[in-house]
Each structure stands twice: as C-alpha cells, then as structure tokens.
Design brief:
Layout: H1 3-15, E1 29-32, E2 35-37, E3 49-50, E4 52-56, E5 59-64, H2 66-73, E6 79-82, E7 87-90, E8 92-97, H3 99-106, E9 109-110, H4 117-130, E10 137-142, H5 155-159, E11 167-171, E12 176-179, H6 181-186, E13 199-203, E14 209-215, H7 218-222, H8 230-246, E15 249-254, H9 258-269, E16 276-282, H10 287-296, E17 304-312, H11 342-354, E18 359-363, H12 366-380, E19 406-407, E20 410-411, E21 417-420, H13 428-435, E22 438-441, H14 444-449, H15 453-457, H16 459-462, H17 468-473, E23 478-480, H18 491-500, H19 518-525, H20 527-532, E24 550-553, H21 562-565, E25 570-575, E26 578-582
Helix pairs in contact: 3-8, 8-9, 11-12, 12-13, 18-19
C-alpha cells in the first residue's frame, strides 16, 4: 500500500467510529422504532439504516436494532422515545444564512412576496400611517423580477406612500435598495455625491438620484437609520431561530451583526439557544479587531463560536451587480460591480490567512469567482508544497477552525470557501479542486433565478451556472444552505431543486445535466456543510461519537417522487438529544 492510500485509510477510519461491543455507559434517552438514515456511507452503494440509537450527554453512544440497543444502554431512568416508524436523518446544517437580517425583516416592513409595485406600496402606506412622526420606515424583501413590469421602483414611487417619513427598503438579495427623497436628503446624497468604491447611485438623465442604491453605496443611507433596540433585536433573532428549527435546521452558519452574536451568547447562557451557530466575521475588519472577536468566545464551544471571515467580491444576478467577465446579455453596457482591486484583495487575504483565519468570499459572477480564486492562491502559496490533494468524498478530519491544521505529518487544506459560486468559466472547476476550495451553494436560488438567469447570462455562459454536478465531478466539496432570508430557510426547496433543476410549478427545467441524486444532495446539506466548518468529526451523522442532532420527517426523502419533497413536514427537531421543535397534529397538512 502506498503512502497516499495509507493516509486515506487512516482518515476513513477516523471519520466513522466503530460501534462498541460493550459499554458500561447507560443512555439518557433511546430513540427507537424509526427508519433512521445514519449518514454512514451516505453516498456509497449501501447507506446505513438502523432502527434505534442511544444518547448520553447529548452524544450518540450506540446505534443499531432496537432490541440490542435497549439491552445494552437502557436503565431505569432512560427516556424511551417511540419514533413510530418515521424517517429520521441527521439535522440539516444550513451553510449560509443571515439570522439577524431575517429577524429584522420579520419585525419591520416585510415586503417579501409582493407580486407588484402596488402591493409593495400598499404595505408601506399602512406602516407609514401607524408610524410615529419622523420615524424611519425600513424593511426589505421586494423583488421586481416577480412583477409584470420587471421595473425597479423609484424614490417617487416610495414618496407617494411614505407620508414624509424617510424610507429605505432593501431588495430581497440585499444588494440594492430603494430610498425615498427624505432618506436621500438625510444621507446627504445629491447629484454631486460620488459613487463609493464597490457601489453605485443610480441617476436619471438629469443626474439626479433615482432612489436605487447599489452595493456599498447602501451604507450612505444605512448609517443614518437608528439601529434596533436590544429587546427588538433579541425578539427578531428568536423568531428567526424558531423558523430554522421548525424546518429541521439544527446548525446555522450565520452572517449577522456582532450585536446578534451577543444575543446568541446570552441565549446560550439562559439555555434558550435552540440551534448550533457558527458565526462569520467581517473580512473587511482589521486583523486586530478580528482577533479580538475570535478570542471573545471559546472556539471549542459546540453550540456557539466564530468561524470564517466573510468578504464580498460582487453583488447578485437579480440586481445585475454580479461581476462578469463580459457584459450582461440583457444589459450590454453593464458587467456588474466588483468590490475590490485585486492586489489589495490579495494583500488582505494573505494577512488574514497568516493570522489563522478561514476565508470565505461571496462571489456570484465569473469575474468575482476568479478574483476569489486568485486571492486564495496568493494566501496559500507559501504552504502549497506541503499540502496534499483535497478529498472530494471522504474529507479528512480537522479538529478546529484555525488554518492550517497539521494532521498525519502534513498540512491540511485551509478549506477556503466561495459562497454562491453561481457562474463559472469551464476552467474554474479544476482551480477549486487544486486549491481545495469549498463550493458553498444554495440550490433553492435556482427556483427563483431560472425564470431570468439565461436571459441575463446568455446560453453559453449559463451552461456553467448553478453547476452542482460539475463541481462534484471535479472533486470539489459542496456545502448547501439557503441564504435565508433571501430564500425561505426550509431545506426541502433546496433538495427538490438539486434533484430536479425544475421550478416548483414543474413548467421549466434548467440545464438538467447538473442534477444531483438525493444522496448527493443530503450529503451536501449535512456532511458537506459540516466539513465546511471543520466539524465533520462530530456532526453530520447519527453514529457513535456524533452529537444527537437529528430531524424526524413524515416522508422518507429517499423513497418518494421529487415533487413530494416539497410537501415534506418536520415532525420533530432534536439538538444535542433535546427536542427543540415538535409539530402539533393540528398544524400538519395533508
């Protein structure tokens, strides 16, 4: 056996703990009579299923047939939980979400789902009539691509219904917003205000601001909006967390404000944090600030800790701010808005990598993807000679989120990530694999975007958009999430999109050669996501040594027609052996 094969064997043995033959430990709880997909050999020829598992101190200590588990682990104090034959899988790990933004939208003016400008105006008018004099009107969730006109709103559209209040509403993707005249005046935006680096103020033919503010230019207005009170922020965060666990999400890799992290910290102290949270830090912050934030909370806290640095390379396709190598097919004068000059980006990436941080870059357009890959290559170059090839289906274990980890005598890949990875050049897949870059993607975006994505990109460039299968074929690790609240946090829309590449109405299919199997999609939403946050040794499977994070469903996702995935309901969500959500019978819909 050569050294490479020996290393892979050692890694595979480390990832899948063996079921102990004897143990003196007794279970706090035994979950039995289930159809339990453990996640062991999930993408192999015979994925493991068991009927029961035993839990002690939040960790699984045994899994197998019910009688054997009871005989070995049951005591007089063990809680017995009958699963009634239901389908059980490891808890979903949302690899990309914004809990703080979701909570804020829930408690502000929620424009999600508005089918027309008139509906958007109606919601704003109602809120203006109820607001205190002089108060800001703020919120988000509007999406002009859902409207018959497909036309962006303007300041005059908002002026007509905002009753003199300054008003600012962010598009559903977060990359553009519309401000009314009072908000523009409060921010000091005039015809002479220059566009900031990485941003743009839309202007009419006379040079006046239209109200549409793109990318970093949003900060000119946002800094004038009073922040939510601590109590309101906490209320919003709790609503977002409850939304997550009610949809079977047990872990969230979150990009929210530092103030939200402090709320999660307090909730954990109170025993009220229902899901595990890995919080991202802002790439743009100074290294000293980042180290202070990293040191603020224990890195080995499995419920809550900080992880990667999140940076933005560009915007979004829906807003036509994603940075492309060639102009948009439906907007020939526009190639999007890159956020960085490459040499500055590279220097910042090297500095932060040297300080031990995992890097994760938002990149949607092919130009932005190349910017991110170039920066990762610059950050990795000093250590590249000591790094083995990445492990596409059986990634090796790393014990923490500090790069680069030393394991078996060599340095492991730093697990840099590109968030979204939506539009690629055909040659970029090999670069991901060579650099060990994780493709952190949200398949549910395709359900929204396929209605117009090919018009934006043209058929040639669209072929390698949302290209999940091409990533796997290239040996790239996929980690799936939702980008909540840009899309609903339910993972079932993402699973459906991944295996069908068809819209929810069943009327349109988008490059079906990029479809995944249900097994590949489940892997990306559990073990792939765990790998992306350096947690695959203890999270993402229902096997001895792994935390008891799981979800009980009313459908076996591996045995139903793809359309039925959208109808799947969560019966119970469990984190660390404790039930954090249980459906009421009256809420189940059939």
């Amino acid at each position: 056996m050569n050294c490479r094969a020996a290393s892979l064997l050692l890694l595979s043995l480390a990832v899948v703990p063996a079921l102990p033959a004897q143990t003196a430990e007794k279970a706090d709880a035994i979950f039995y009579n289930g159809n339990i997909l453990t996640g062991v050999d999930l993408t192999g020829p015979d994925p493991q299923r068991v009927a029961a598992f035993a839990v002690a101190k939040g960790v699984i200590i045994g899994a197998g047939e019910t009688a054997a588990i009871e005989a070995q682990y049951k005591s007089t104090s063990t809680q017995m939980v009958d699963l009634h034959g239901a389908f059980v899988i490891p808890g979903f790990n949302d690899a990309h979400a914004h809990l703080g933004s979701a909570g804020e939208i829930k408690l502000s003016i929620d424009l999600t789902g508005c089918a027309s400008l008139a509906e958007m105006q109606g919601r704003i008018k109602k809120a203006a009539e109820e607001a205190q004099p002089g108060a800001w009107l703020a919120g988000g969730g509007w999406d002009h691509t859902l409207w018959e006109s497909k036309t962006l709103p303007s300041k005059s559209d908002i002026d007509a219904v905002s009753g003199g209040h300054p008003a600012f509403f962010v598009r559903i993707d977060g990359h553009i917003a519309v401000a009314n005249s009072a908000a523009l005046a409060a921010a000091g935006i005039t015809r002479n205000t220059p566009d900031p680096q990485g941003g743009k103020i839309d202007r009419d033919a006379s040079g006046e601001a239209t109200g549409i503010i793109r990318e970093t230019a949003q900060g000119l207005v946002e800094k004038k909006i009073p922040p939510p009170s601590p109590d309101l922020r906490r209320e919003g965060d709790l609503l977002a967390l409850q939304d997550a666990v009610s949809h079977g999400v047990t872990s969230v890799q979150d990009n929210s404000d530092w103030e939200d992290f402090l709320v999660y910290e307090q909730l954990e102290k109170e025993g009220r944090l229902p899901a595990r949270i890995s919080e991202w830090l802002p790439f743009q912050a100074s290294v000293d600030q980042l180290k202070q934030m990293r040191d603020h909370h224990p890195a080995d806290d499995r419920m809550l800790h900080t992880t990667m640095l999140k940076g933005f390379m560009d915007g979004s396709l829906g807003s036509r701010t994603a940075a492309l190598n060639a102009p948009y097919a439906d907007d020939p004068g526009n190639s999007g808005i890159p956020r960085y000059e490459q040499s500055k980006l590279n220097a910042m990436a090297v500095e932060r990598a040297d300080a031990g941080f995992q890097l994760g870059f938002h990149a949607i357009g092919d130009r932005a993807v190349e910017m991110a890959l170039d920066a990762f290559a610059a950050a990795q170059k000093p250590q590249q000679a000591t790094r083995p090839a990445p492990f596409p289906q059986g990634p090796g274990p790393v014990h923490n989120n500090v790069r680069p980890a030393l394991r078996f005598g060599y340095r492991m890949p730093p697990r840099d990530r590109i968030e979204h990875s939506q539009v690629l050049d055909a040659g970029d897949f090999a670069r991901y694999a060579k650099l060990g870059v994780i493709a952190s993607m949200q398949p549910n975006h395709l359900l929204t975007d396929m209605a117009w994505a090919e018009e934006r990109l043209g058929p040639g460039r669209a072929r390698y958009s949302y290209a999940w299968k091409s990533f796997l074929d290239a040996g790239v690790v996929l980690a799936f999430g939702t980008d909540y609240p840009v899309e609903p946090i339910t993972p079932f829309r993402g699973l459906y999109a991944a295996v069908t590449r068809m819209n929810e109405a069943g009327t349109q299919t988008y490059f079906p050669e990029e479809k995944l199997t249900i097994w590949q999609a489940l892997y990306a939403y559990t073990q792939g996501s765990a790998y992306a946050e350096f947690a695959e040794e203890w999270k993402g499977k229902l096997a001895p040594g792994y935390v008891a994070d799981f979800v009980v469903l009313d459908h076996d996702l591996t045995a139903i027609a793809p359309k039925e995935i959208l109808k799947t309901q969560v019966l119970r969500t469990v984190v660390g052996g404790k039930t954090v959500y249980e459906a009421e019978a009256s809420n189940l819909k059939r």
